[in-house]
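WARN retry 2 of 3 for item q-0093 after timeout on previous attempt; input resubmitted unchanged.
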Amino acid sequence: MAGGECMDNSQNVSWKMITEMENHTRKLGVKRVIVVASMDDAGSSWVSHMKAVDIITSIPEDPQQQEYPGHNAIAIAYCKAAEMADTKLNSGSKARSAYQGEFGHPGGLIKQVQSGFNVTVFSGASGEQDVAIAKVGMDGYQKAR
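OK item q-0093 returned
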């Protein structure tokens, strides 16, 4: 298989995973951001696809009571992915303290595959819902291949 065909198939698989995750978010009635990525064994070379499900930011009811005036789901999703790229563990594993720029939130899953690792992330719901949506994406990998 030529390199272009392999890349095309990888993109098709990623978008099928994202579609599965988006369908699940709609069933749960949640919104925000999906990230699907593949990376090499070291975690230093990776390709990701991101999709916003309706909205990407939210403002708490009382922003004066918060450290930050709102939440940016794209930033949080990629923080989860960055943690997993370094630890090779699901986000929020608490295997080590969060580094600056990370939050240690659950909602990202990582799985070793033949070519490195697959990562699925959702950011925007409760931690349990984020994990459930990420699992739908990871399960979708097997169906999409």
